[in-house]
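The instructor's notes for this session suggest beginning with a concrete chain rather than abstract definitions. Hand out the sequence below and ask the class to guess, before any prediction is shown, which regions might be ordered.
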Amino acid sequence: MLGGDATGSGADLSPLNRKGFAPEALFDVADLEARDQFGIWKESIAVIFDVDAPRSALLDGFDARIHATMLGPMMLARCQTRAQNFTRGAGRISQDGLDHYMIQFYETGAQRVTAGSLEIDHPAATMLVYDLAREMRATTDAFSNLSLIIPRELLSERLIAPDDQHMRHFTRQQPTVAILWDFLRGAMDHAGKMSLSEAENLGAAALTLIAACLNAEHDENLPQEQLRNLGRMTTVRRLIQTHLAEPDLTPEWLAVEAGISRTVLYRMFEPMGGIAGFIREARLRRALQQLLSPQHQHRSLLEIALMHGYGSDTAFGRAFKKRFGITPREVRDGQMPSAEQAGLIDHDRLDRQYEGWLTYLSS
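After discussion, reveal the predicted structure:
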């Protein structure tokens, strides 16, 4: 993966990549015809966001550039583009399977983000945390930003509150945030110059620093009883994740295994729609990941249904469509070819490796 194979058949297509070095990709629509620039950008970034832009921003073409590298199993990227709207809704979440955190700094420009009832102004030199399994919408200025995309399992066990990170906003007044800002900018500025082992070591260091940032506020402000509840929550979540295929995964069983009463268990999960809803969500997300993964293409829909606590593929399909808006069959069979696969894009003109890296991260 780190030698450029993350894209499958598109390995080492970028002239930027050198054997033994962390891979580097540079997507830039500047050399395309002006009439094609926004369309190709929209298609490319759909690997993670749906976008639209005001007509006034498209009259003379469009600017969009992503410079990306891999830090071990994480992707670090600098994006520079014009004002537009970014959306991550239920349909996009269901299609790409990205169950990840994204740490983002704006270098220039700003955005206003809406997530449920939250509205957040995200100016330059501040940090915003995304949970990519949850919905959001943003309106931006022209901007340059840095984003680090982290598979959930790499970071969640380091966090006091792994499910309470979406849309957390930090300023550089917090020392660890200022250090992380400098760290990620330095890593991005040296993209393509790091060996594979250096990039992996930097990735490990980034995880430690990010956990320090995200846990600092909890460490200082949470009462001891709330900290104990967060610890219990982590225990229960681990039990759920490791027993999703078990038909006996019930609140009663979880309470016994976690050493807590059912009353405490129900109270802990009430803000998240209840323990039964949490288990159902975890099963459907895992099923989605398996439907998207080439490693599970040999499994029938019935097999996947049975592996996730459903008695039939019909019941599974009904629950899946209610949650994600599309059927399991549409996820498995409804993937549209990219412009590259359709023969519309020449790799000599456009480097789209970062899309493959994101797809790899979701599998």
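Then share the key points. The domain at 224-325 is CATH 1.10.10.60 (Arc Repressor Mutant, subunit A). The two ends are 12 Å apart (CA to CA).
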